[in-house]
Amino acid sequence: MASAVGKELEELCTNYEQMELDGVATGEVYTQLLAIYLLQNDICNAKFLWKRMPDDIKNSTPEAASLWTLGCHMWKRDYVGIYASLNQEWSSLTQPYIISLKGREKFQDKVFRLCERAYTSIKKDDLAAYLGMTVTDAVSVAVSQGWTLDSASGFLAPKRSEPVTKDIPLTSEQELALLTDYVSFLEN
What we know:
about 70% helix, COP9_CSN8, CSN8_PSD8_EIF3K, cytoplasm, 3 strands, mainly alpha, CSN8/PSMD8/EIF3K domain-containing protein
């Protein structure tokens, strides 16, 4: 089911991109395309879309500006700002995208798993800020996932479910191919 939704989202994205290329994109199309890029965590394309969006559309579509503010928070990994932006009022045009982005299986779970891999111990207040939850809720989620709480210090220790492995270094040819792809992307 998730792959069907992903495929549908890709098709919608492609259609909106084509409308932009054809010069028939409206403020609504730009807004939805920006929302799709953010939902896909494609911050680079969201940034370039915002830069090429006509000023009259930027000025007449406040929701697009709100989406770009959300994108800026995502770019900076400002989790407090992200959750503040996600929790504001959204129109029926972008609300489905925001609900999907806000869903546990998307953003919060990704941040939770990142904290799980990045920390050997973390203050419960910091985890709550990363997850956009109250401290009580964040501790509850962490403990339900097998984390341990040191009540005296207020630190949580993640459960290590898989051993941490080092990345295998890339060969010179792989690094060159990756660099070529980056330059090609930036030039186009």
